[in-house]
Amino acid sequence: MSAGDATAADPPPAGTVEALGRRVYKLERINASLMAHVERAMDQQGGAYSLFQTAITLEGRVRSRTEELTALMHSLERSNEALQAAKEEAETANRSKTRFLAAASHDLLQPLNAARLSLSALTDLAPSHEAQTIAGQVERGLQTIEDLIKTLIDISKLDAGVVHPVPKSVRLADLVANIEASFRPFAERKDLRLVTRCRDVVVETDIVLLQRILQNLVSNAVRYTERGGVLIAVRRRGQHCRIDVVDTGRGIPVSEQSLVFEEFYRGSKDTDDAEVSLGLGLGLSIVQRMASALGHTITLHSRVGHGTRITIDLPCGKTRPDAPVRIAPVATTLTGARVLVVENDASTAEALERLLTNWDAQVRTHRDLAGVAEALRTGMKRPDVMIIDYHLDDGTCGLDVVAYLRRTQGWVTPVIVTTADYGNAIERQVIETGAELVHKPIKPAQLRSLLAYMLA
Question: Is residue 89, in this structure, part of any structural domain at all?
């Protein structure tokens, strides 16, 4: 055995083994420390990665929610645009409907006008009881058609917002007296009392609309009252005025009181009264719309079997009006009166000429300004009164005839302007001209009364 072999086989000295053990232990500790460090590093990297993944996930969700909200906002914008477009389309359609009804009313009311005038002339020619009865039935039918057309036009205008009130100071005593004079014959025909209690109060309102409101209220009160009477009372309450229309009629059940201002409500049908049966159920609907346009408050109180009270609350006026409301007197004879009629509708002109001739008037009829001018050249005398249609052919206006005669002849002759157009603008234009306005269909009794008043 060589010396090298002996050296390789011999165990290391004891000190060397201990040193190696210490080194191994130290290396193990270092290794453990390194492993722990690596594990901690891995844990930290794993947490950061998890946070990173979480952040990415949250960002995706936020982006998704943002996209959903953005899409919803765009959808809402489109919906709003669609709603606005629909609203504008509806308003345009409403205005078109109003213009159509206003235009159609002239054509619809013209034949009614001619029919009523012809019927009045026929009644004068056929005085028998049976003929008078039939004429009365036809007259009531024509009146119902006329009322329906006028009311539908009014509702259309109010709903479309084309009615613009012109408030001014109004003496209620004059207005109430006018209403009383108009409805007293109807009340007396049913043996009802029509009583007014009106202080000298001035209010701020549109006189045309307020008169229509009171006419509808009093008309309803008389129509639905069988016994007793109707009261129109005016009282001042501080800076406001209260108008009550009270009747002793059948009353309105509580269950129906919320319906009375709706279209076509006519109350209980358990009646044989012809006037009640002919009611359209639109009067109070018009009242509500007109009061809303004026800013006046309408309230209703009613008890079945005792009657109904409808109250209008409106502001008092600050200044007194210059002139009272004029009331036409009872008609007198028209014998010998020269009447100039300018009417482009042949049937209406013929019926009006026949009616005036039956009243012993001397009538000249022309279709337009050219006809009047030609009559002047052939020696036409100055008429005592003129009845002129507002709408003539080719878009011309009847007031042009008035202006022409005043300018060329110096004739300041009383004028009645007839029209089937119920617009406020035409009414004010006629009033500014100093003429009287009569809406078609013309009521013969109203026309005769007005002619007598103007000729007097």
Answer: no
235: which 2 tokens? 């009282």
Q: Say which CATH number the domain at 413 has.
A: 3.40.50.2300
Top-confidence residue, 352 or 104: 352
Q: Which two tokens stand for residue 282?
A: 């639109």
pLDDT at 303 over 50: yes
The residues facing 247 across adjacent strands are: 230, 308
Please tell me the distance from the alpha carbon of residue 238 to that of residue 422, in angstroms, as a whole number. Answer: 35
Residues 438 and 113 sit within 8 Å (Cβ to Cβ): no
Last residue of a domain, one of 78, 98, 128: 78
Q: Classify residue 9: in a domain, yes or no.
A: no
Give the mean pLDDT of 232-254.
90
Query: What pLDDT is attached to residue 14?
Result: 53
Report residue 159 as tokens: 């709903």
Is the Cβ–Cβ distance between 284 and 261 less than 8 Å? Answer: yes
CA end-to-end span of the chain? 173
Strand partners, 169: 204
Token pair in block for residue 312: 């209008």
Cis amide prior to 441 (ω within 30 degrees): yes
Select the highest-mean-pLDDT range: 50-54, 385-389, 448-452.
385-389
**Which residue's structure tokens are 């005038």?**
117
Pairwise CA distance, residues 352 & 354, whole Å: 5
This prediction's pTM: 0.48
CA atoms of 72 and 112, how far apart (whole Å)? 57
Q: For residue 35, with 0-12 CB atoms within 10 Å meaning exposed, 13-18 middle and 19 or more buried, which class applies? A: exposed
State which residues form the domain around 346. 338-455
Q: State whether 178 and 284 are in the same domain.
A: yes
